[in-house]
Amino acid sequence: MTEQLYFDDPLTLEFTAEVGEIVPLNDSKFGAVLPRTYFYPTSGGQDHDTGTIGAARVLDVYKQGGDILHVLDKSLSPGSYPAKIDAQRRRLAMQHHTAQHILSASFLEALEIESISAKINGGSPSTVDIQTDQLSSDDITRVEDFANGILFENRAVKSYYVNDEQALKIPFRKAPKVSGRIRVVEVDNFDYTPCGGTHCPNTGMVGLLKIVKTERINKKLRVHFVAGGQALGYFQDYQRVLQESSSLLESGITGIAEAIAGKLERLKQAEIQLEALHSDRLAAEAAQLIDSAQTLVDRILITALFRNRPAVELRQLANRLRKEKKLVAVLAVYDGLKLSLITICGRDTDLDARDLLQKQLGPLKLKGGGDGSLAQGGGAVNEELVGDLFKNTREYLDVA
Ligand SMILES: [Zn+2]
After folding, report:
1. How many folded domains does the chain comprise?
2. CA 314 to centroid of ligand 1, rounded, Å
3. How far apart are the first and last CA of the chain?
4. Domain holding 106: CATH number?
5. Domain end point (choices 37, 67, 85)
6. How far is the CA of 33 from the centre of ligand 1 (A)?
7. Which residue in 349, 309, 363, 352 sits closest to 331, CA to CA?
């Protein structure tokens, strides 16, 4: 049975560990059960501590019946060793755990919303699941203001034990799940929770609490929050991003949204102008192709091969051309690897665009489809096969 020293003294992070028998575990790891420890094992929604015992790294800590097992990266001989808990990881866990009690109680006090469960991380935002499916930004501000008010009052956070009878007189936010000897964590005169985690001795040590995201999961809401050192890290990251953005936009930080809105509006206008220019250019190109079309007995023929042009643009050009009377056209784009081809046969030409497409693509073993007036297809083709691409069309139309 390991004595859990972190309950009464969560601030001691260095101690002498009495190592007895070491048990080999999987993956070349070793387990040590100590008679007394300050290492916190994963439990009650809070992650385990890490650190060192002598020359061994403590990789994991968990409960095994009444014992606490310390998972080590190397074996140790029985004896006394200096042990050290990773201070930053523990402090973040304590800040987040204390913040979680206060946040859950604040949801109840400020918004009358009950919390269901929590996951304390410290390394990434911790979460509280609450009994609602939505929160407005006003709700979030209200609960943050309320919770941070409790932090700024620097209330004492106490822990003590009660028996079942004494427990009946404690105004627990959530009823204890255990009976007999119940550990109460009290945020002075504000929140009473049955809990076996490590907490800050005063709310001021939590520093700051901020909700960073909410996420709907079935009919509940998962609230992601940061506190203490992690809240500072978030603020520093956000500040950096905002400063870089305001520098790029040549605006002050508070003017970023307005600057982006202005740029988006100008971008929209530029896109409209670009679209108009593009449309004019295609109209001019279509007119030029019609002017230089080959005149046959009762039709006109256009053939054009383009290099490295978007296939979508070829289609736009085809749509402009197909209005022309008596038109037969073959338009192609080749990018060095892939050929895209469109055939047009006006309904007044007695020809079928699908037949013409087949004449063009069949010998290249490529396929396509469409209707009688416009068809398209293509695929990978060697450069030399593109050389006299329209020979088949001329043969099909019996043109020299
Ligand atoms: Zn707790």
Report:
1. 4
2. 66
3. 101
4. 3.30.980.10
5. 85
6. 24
7. 309
Model's pTM, two decimal places? Answer: 0.74
Give distance in angstroms: CA of 304 to centre of ligand 1. 75
Residue among 183, 196, 156, 189 at smallest CA distance from 171: 189
Rounded-to-integer distance, Cα 89 and Cα 83, Å: 15
* Per-position pLDDT tens, the chain of length 400: 999 999 989 999 999 999 998 999 999 999 999 999 999 999 888 889 999 999 999 999 999 999 999 999 999 999 999 999 999 999 999 999 999 999 999 999 999 999 999 998 777 899 999 999 899 999 999 999 999 999 999 999 999 999 999 999 999 998 898 889 999 999 999 999 999 899 999 999 999 999 999 999 988 999 999 999 999 999 999 999 999 999 999 999 999 999 999 999 999 999 999 999 999 999 999 999 999 999 988 899 999 999 988 988 999 999 999 999 999 999 999 998 999 999 999 999 989 999 999 999 988 899 999 999 999 999 999 888 888 888 888 888 887 6
Note down the domain range covering 52: 3-85
- CA 72 to ligand 1 center in whole angstroms: 26
Tell me: do 182 and 162 sit in the same domain.
yes
Question: Within 13 Å, how many C-alpha atoms sit on residue 360's CB side?
Answer: 35
Q: Same structural domain for residues 25 and 161? A: no
Residue matched to tokens 């530029």: 270
CB-count exposure of residue 246 (10 Å: 0-12, 13-18, 19+):
middle
Q: Token pair 């054009």 is at which residue?
A: 304
Whether residue 75 sits in one domain with residue 29 = yes
Give, as residue ranges, everything with CB less than 5 Å from ion ligand 1: 97, 195, 197
Do 373 and 346 meet the contact criterion of CB atoms below 8 Å apart? yes
